[in-house]
Every structure is written in structure tokens, then in C-alpha cells.
Automatic annotation (TrEMBL):
Upper taxonomic lineage: Bacteria, Bacillati, Bacillota, Clostridia, Eubacteriales
Signal peptide positions on this chain: none
Residues in EAL domain copies: 24-279
Name of the protein described by the UniProt record: Diguanylate cyclase (GGDEF) domain-containing protein
Top-rank taxon: Bacteria
């Protein structure tokens, strides 16, 4: 009867809970050693410019390459690292890796593409958090225009005033700034006028019908892209999986697509082959 099933559900949930706690404890014990051992690796996902079908940027996405458990996706450790704030270390490590890569490209005479990194809201606890980023960037001598910081839309609702200041600080240092996951939560179109972002990243929640033939969906996407353009923001459509979606986005004058339709996030050498491969073989 219902009582039994409720009991069962409770039991089941608490087993899952215990498992989660065990895994979190395990991560807590190993995270610092893992960071020191280089187990966090940066993958890059290309952003394809719809103007000329070239790779015009990349997003850095972290993975945990655990020697025992294999490649762990960010969804399995980032929420926990946001709770215990270890994400601050991870984000700075990713940023360091990205600056180091850009430095190497510049040294090798490769024309670099800008790379974006995700910044967790945990950084905002410290008002001088950008100093740590700047110290790294300067150590590598990388121009700030090659770096973009992605802030997620959920920040808007927790503390818009703080967010305005963060964007301002990012710009004063010469970095670009983008609004990640726009449209995944309860985005207020009205807030867009106050958010001086360079780029709006349309969340994949916009592209739910895979065949891209839902007229209401198309109208919403087109309007958001038009609005972004009026506000001088470029647009990146995230999670684009089909050629039909890409064709529609081109028609809607979206600037870039980032999605499996072109490439998944890949290890750095694979990205270099995708982005610079042709140029390299010309040189050889
Ligand atoms: P995000 O910043 O919105 O990154 C885009 C996510 O969408 C990536 O997931 C990417 O692999 C996935 N994606 C891209 N194209 C497609 C597609 O066509 N279809 C589908 N189904 N998915 C697609 P990923 O790499 O698993 O990262 C998940 C989230 O973890 C990121 O979402 C970001 O919020 C967070 N994250 C990743 N790396 C970092 C990091 O270094 N620092 C911080 N703070 N967060 C990170
Ligand atoms: Mg992102
Ligand atoms: Mg996103
Ligand atoms: Mg996301």
C-alpha cells in the first residue's frame, strides 16, 4: 500500500544521499592533490562564426582526469566545489592553463583565437578577486582582449548590483565579458539594458525542438538575437546539435554557434588540429 511505497522511497533516497556524501568526502580528500598532480584538464569547445564558417573562439571547459575513475564531467564535481569554494582554485588553474596556451600560440606565430573561461560566483566573495586573474595574465604577457569571462545568468537575481560592478571591473582590465546560459532561468529582458556584456550566450533551452521548425521558438530566438544586436552584444548559440538549427541561426543573424553539430569539447591538441590544422600543414 501507499505507506510501504513511501517507506521504500525514503529508504531509496537516503541510500542515494549516503552515496553522495561518501563521494563528496572522497572528493574533498583528494581535490587538492588532484589539482597539484594536474588531474584537472582543460578541454576546448570551438565557437564557429556563422559569417564565414571559421573557428573564431573557444570555451575552456574543465574535466577531472581521475587515474582510477576516468574522465569525470564537470557536472559531477563543480556543484560540490561551489559549496566548499574549491571552485575558486579550479577556475584560477583553468585560467592559468588558458593563458599558458595563448602564450604558446603567440610564441609559435599562430594567430590566436580568444578563449573564454567560466567564473563561478564563489569568486565574488572577495572584492579583489580579479587581481588574482590579472597576476596570472601579466605573468604570461597575454593581451586581455584574448580573454573572455563567462558569468552565469543566475547571478543576476542574487545580486544585480554586485554583478554590475563585476562587469565594470572586468571591462576596466580589458577583458571581454559574456552572459552564460541566458534563457535557462528566469531571465529578465529588462535587465539586459543594464548589463554591459559583450556577448550573450543563448542557452540550449532555446533549442528544444531538434528540427528547428517550431515557429514560436524561432520567433523568440530571432527576437532575442535582434535585441542583443541593438544593445551591441554579439550572440553565441549554445548546444546547437543539428544542421537545421545552424541554418536557422544563420538566417536569424546569430554571430556564432557552439555545439555538438560542429564539435564537442576536445583536448587541446585536437582543438589545435581543428582550428589551425590547415595552416600547419601549409607551413610543413
Ligand atoms: P557551460 O559553461 O554552459 O558550458 C557549456 C556546456 O554545454 C558544456 O558542458 C558543453 O559540453 C555542453 N555542450 C556544448 N554543446 C552541446 C550540445 O550540442 N549538446 C549538449 N547536450 N551539450 C552541449 P560541460 O563541459 O559538461 O560543462 C557543464 C558546465 O560546467 C558548464 O556549462 C559550466 O557551467 C561548468 N563548468 C565547466 N568548466 C568550468 C570551469 O572551469 N569553471 C566553472 N566555474 N564552471 C565550469
Ligand atoms: Mg560557459
Ligand atoms: Mg552555457
Ligand atoms: Mg551551463
Amino acid at each position: 500500500d501507499t505507506n510501504d511505497s513511501r517507506l521504500f522511497a525514503f529508504q531509496f533516497y537516503s541510500d542515494l544521499d549516503r552515496l553522495k556524501l561518501m563521494r563528496e568526502k572522497d572528493m574533498e580528500n583528494r581535490m587538492q592533490d588532484a589539482l597539484n598532480a594536474g588531474e584537472f584538464v582543460v578541454y576546448l569547445q570551438p565557437k564557429l562564426s556563422l559569417k564565414d564558417d571559421t573557428i573564431s573562439g573557444a570555451e575552456a571547459l574543465v574535466r577531472w582526469q581521475d587515474p582510477e575513475r576516468g574522465l569525470i564531467p564537470p557536472d559531477e564535481f563543480i556543484p560540490f566545489f561551489e559549496k566548499n569554494r574549491f571552485i575558486v582554485e579550479v577556475d584560477l588553474y583553468v585560467f592559468d592553463q588558458v593563458c599558458s596556451l595563448l602564450r604558446r600560440w603567440l610564441d609559435e606565430g599562430i594567430t590566436p583565437v580568444p578563449i573564454s573561461v567560466n567564473m563561478s560566483r564563489a569568486h565574488l566573495a572577495k572584492t579583489d578577486f580579479l587581481d588574482a586573474y590579472e597576476a596570472i595574465r601579466k605573468a604570461y604577457g597575454v593581451p586581455p582582449e584574448l580573454l573572455e569571462i563567462e558569468l552565469t545568468e543566475t547571478l543576476v537575481f542574487t545580486n544585480p548590483e554586485a554583478l554590475f560592478q563585476v562587469i565594470d571591473q572586468i571591462h576596466r582590465r580589458g577583458y571581454r565579458c559574456s552572459m552564460d546560459d541566458f534563457g535557462s532561468g528566469y531571465s529578465s529582458l529588462n535587465l539586459l539594458k543594464d548589463l554591459r556584456m559583450d556577448t550573450l550566450k543563448l542557452d540550449r533551452a532555446f533549442f528544444t525542438s531538434q528540427n528547428a521548425d517550431n515557429p514560436r521558438e524561432r520567433d523568440v530566438v530571432t527576437s532575442v538575437i535582434d535585441l542583443a544586436e541593438k544593445l551591441s552584444m554579439s550572440t553565441v548559440a549554445e548546444g546547437v546539435e543539428t544542421p537545421a538549427q545552424t541554418a536557422f541561426l544563420k538566417e536569424a543573424r546569430c554571430d556564432m554557434v557552439q555545439g555538438y553539430v560542429f564539435s564537442r569539447p576536445v583536448p587541446i591538441p585536437d582543438f589545435e588540429a581543428l582550428a589551425f590544422g590547415a595552416a600547419d600543414s601549409e607551413k610543413a
